[in-house]
Amino acid sequence: MSKTGIKHKGLRDLARNRYLYALAVPAIVFSIVFAYLPMLGVVLAFQDFNPLKGLFGSKWIGLDNFRFFFRGQDWLIITGNTVMYNLLFIVTGTILSLAFAIMLTELGKSVIVRVMQSVMILPNFISWPIIGLFSVAFFTADTGVVNRFLSAIGARDIAFYSDDKAWPFILVLLNIWKTAGFGAIVYMAAIVGIDKGLYEAARIDGASRFQSIFRITLPMLKSTIVMLFLLSLGNIFGGNLEMIYSLVGDNSFLFGTTDTIDTYVFRALRTAGSLGMTQAIALYQSLVGFVLVVAANKIAGKLDKDSALF
Q1: Residue 142 is part of which domain span?
Q2: In this structure, is residue 97 part of a structural domain?
Q3: CB burial string 26-57: b at 16+ within 10 A, e below
Q4: Each residue's pLDDT tens digit in the chain (310 positions)?
Q5: Is 272 within a domain?
Q6: Residue 22 in domain
Q7: What CATH number does residue 254 fall under?
């Protein structure tokens, strides 16, 4: 029997580490109040919700709210755009963040490197609505900076706000500019934790900097890369509402390549005013995202047990 006199293993651990568990209480309470209790709102997806009758007094209508979204072909286009953008954001963001982290680490700790770090991180603190205002100055048809430059070199102007073909490139480029520098911090922290003896041994064996990067740095970062990828995968059905709506707004000319699930839900909530329909789409997002995370985690666990989240 343990010193505490408690036989049950879980209770014994709780008694032994009671102060550590006490530190976790605020986070647990916060999660329950703001993450788990709101999940009761899932029932709205199956109701013709009436605010006067409340959550449990509204009429149940089964799957009618889901039919609103899945009728026709729009849901395929919207879902495809959502997945496409998030995959592009994850892949390009990971590659650029890794590249920046390795570059800054290899350059050392000079004043120039510190200035570069500050410049790279700064865009993360600029809100998307502000970026949206600046984008107008760049992409306006007649007076935009981009079209003025194209005219100066004799190229044809691009009608950015009536032609949707250029926007996938614009959105990916802006996302990289805003997030890659901040994302590099995580990888820099992981690189700093790598045993320096490995690099010294490689240097003694005649390895170049590039060989050390590809043979030591990247393999040692594999678990971190996979973990961040799995965490990002949970939001792959999120539509980056703040970003896309700040840049595109309600411009119907651009819906073909910019309309995502979140922007569709936001527009439907403002026009139709049905909380049940919007909750049905949100439930669809959450379920598919959950399935993707579990499946990807299972695959990662089979390839490398240390890379799995659970």
Answers
A1: 73-307
A2: yes
A3: eeeeeeeeeeeeeeeeebbbbbbbeeeeeeee
A4: 445 555 667 777 888 888 888 898 999 999 999 888 888 888 888 888 888 788 778 888 888 888 877 877 778 888 888 888 988 999 999 999 999 988 888 887 778 888 888 888 888 888 999 998 888 888 887 778 888 888 888 888 888 888 888 899 999 999 999 988 888 888 988 888 888 888 888 888 888 888 888 888 888 888 888 888 877 877 777 768 889 888 988 888 888 888 888 888 888 777 776 778 888 888 888 888 788 878 877 877 776 676 666 6
A5: yes
A6: no
A7: 1.10.3720.10
